[in-house]
What we know:
Structural class of chain C: mainly alpha
Number of helices of chain A: 4
Largest interface: A-C, 32 and 36 residues
Number of strands of chain A: 0
Radius of gyration of chain A: 20 Å
Oligomer: heterotrimer
Shape of chain C: globular
Largest sheet of chain A: none
Number of helices of chain C: 21
Strand order of the largest sheet of chain C: 1-2
Order of helices and strands of chain A: HHHH
Radius of gyration of chain C: 22 Å
Shape of chain A: elongated
Amino acid sequence: MIIYILVALMFFTGLYGIIAKKNIIKIIVGVNIVGYVTSLLFVLFGYKWDGIAPILTQDMNYSQFVERAVDPLPQALVLTSIVIDLAFVAFLAALAIRIFERYGTFDIDKIRRLKG
Amino acid sequence: MENKGMSEIVKGIARIVFPFIVLYSISLILYGHITPGGGFAGGVVLTGGFVLLLLAFGKEYVFHFFPLEIAKSLDSTGALGFLAIALMGLLGGAFFYNLLPKGTLFNLWSAGTIMLSNIMIGLKVSAGLFVAIVILSMARLIRTKEGLRYKQSGKEEDQ
Amino acid sequence: MNHLIILPVAIYLGAGFLIPLIARKDEVLAGIAGVLFTFLVFITSLFLSIDVFTNGRIVYFAGGWEKPLGIALMLDPLSCLFLLMTNTITFIIMLYSTVYMKKFTGVPYFYTLFMIMLAGMNGILISMDIFNIYVFFEVASIASFTLVAFGLKAEELEASVKYTVMSIIASTMITFAIALIYGLTGTLNISAFMSSSAGLSPVHLWFIAGLLLSGFALKTALVPFHSWLPDAHSMAPAPISAILSGMFIKVVGLYVLIRITTNIFITLPQIRIVLLLFGVFSMLFGGLMAYGQKNIKRLYAYSTISQIGYCAIGLGIGGYLGYLGVLMHFIAHGFSKALLFLNIGAVEYMTGTTEADQLKGLNDRMPVTTLFGSTGMLGIAGVPPMGNFWSKLIIIIAAIQAGYPGIAVLCIIVAVITLGYFLKLQRTVYYSRAEESVKAEAPKMLLLPMGILAVLVFISGILLIPGIRQHSLDKAVSVMENFSYTDIKTGDLQ
């Protein structure tokens, strides 16, 4: 139970970074944290207490493996999710470089030419 | 001055460590269907090796052996190879069908097309991340009369 | 099994990676390749729709792995309608953008990103389980972030940052919902989720529904979640604005919302009421904010918010007429909004500006552009005989029949407001006295796609003639009304 409370705490830290911070780089760090937290939650849902990693070796029979192994499906989905978050962060970093070139600042209060 | 790379100690160690990094990443990619790893993890480790060379030796040295244009072409080739493997499965009946012979369990040459897919993905990820990191780091801050601005060698798109 | 179903996604992905390989420095070759591949996919989707609308649903198992292990692809009349519309509009816009993109640098990368975005959009339409939808949705979204910032001017980058960060929040909520679905029921397959959702407590079910609804409502730009749209659609290059406003928010947002409310969460009728509220607020907000805009593309973006509100109202009302209104409105608005954005792009190509104060009297030197622009504006405002008139009429009748007369009155008021700002725009920009800023007529390759779209706007009403309607729209509506994913479980495979 306490694991889920810690996960929620980490999520709110990342969310605080996206919503309340004024520097674009800190917003990017917040996006990164939130991405990791959702992947972590996914893997955590497949966890079994005292489980082993879902790798089949040669000296293990199937029924024992199925009983004791952690669920491998969320781990496969998390691989995809990590790649997607990597693409988000890489693109935001490239955007932040070019925004600094045009506006001269990273402060989102000053990057506000579009109004109305 | 920065383009010439770092000190001699760093260059020497990078020269020694780089082949091991390449070997480790190839092992991750090729054994992807038996042990954890696979195309993506192997590709990221290979990119880490290239970034080590970039940091230790400077941009010109790395571009002498691995130009950016070849990296972009390898990127596209990896993706097209993966698509070709998937379409090849059509010959066996369905999209992505596992066509090649599946040997006995736990061997290297088992599980059909999965090893080929891993190789293609490893190629694509390493080349693609290398291009992305080079483009993101090519911006240099220079001091002009109006203040600071970025100078970029070559107008690249943020891809 | 019909193997054609994988071709749209496979061709677009192959095209997206072939173009940087062979045409990285060559704009003309990249343009020809782009037109060729979109034409191929257009022909494929024609064949697919002939098959689906006569024979019924196509189910295809990737890799030959049967249920419950395999990943299933499915094309039923609802998604086939969206597929045909998407590929038609895409082909027309690709013809336009071969000439329009001459004003930009790095054009082959534009075609690459465009192809990848289209691969993502087509992938959403053919996939059947929720994680597949999520992956293709992300592919399309990331490509669209890049395309909005393509011109690399200051305002475009700012608009893209706003769009990206808000979209990341939406995909976080959707990932959370998928994680909860997996954690509570132990499966990702929607038919199994439906059958075991009877065992979930209502709190869990409502939480998942709420997360999914808010995530996808952000991509559809319904009113509390709309603030990225005016910036992103007004600052993107004109063909990208046309595809974003015309098809992207409908495929990525509205299509998945239709699947969620009518096929997945059929045990929760409260979702309809929420959508109804969102739709009413969007309609009013978009219509009223469009009056004060000086930038014409921003005005069109607020008009998009207003028209998507109509679609959400139709979805919220439900029943045969409501669903028919949603589908008809989505078709008609797709054609006419794409026409309007291409039109303002042609004006911008010739004069260099999109501010309403600086453009006067375009009718004198650009008569053909003015004609197509007026057709588009009258189309969106809902003047008969164009398709939008019939769709708004159907939604209003559905509202009255379902017992919401207030909403019907609001729909009529907003239709009048829409007509108002478009007529004002026409008078000040098109039919006034000319100044020196207008030079000559737009090139023919920009006029031809606009002409095709104008003809389609005019004749899109024929989809409602009972003979044609039975074969196309009625089948899609019946999918929305009585389909549930548990049907696939017994397996009427082909």
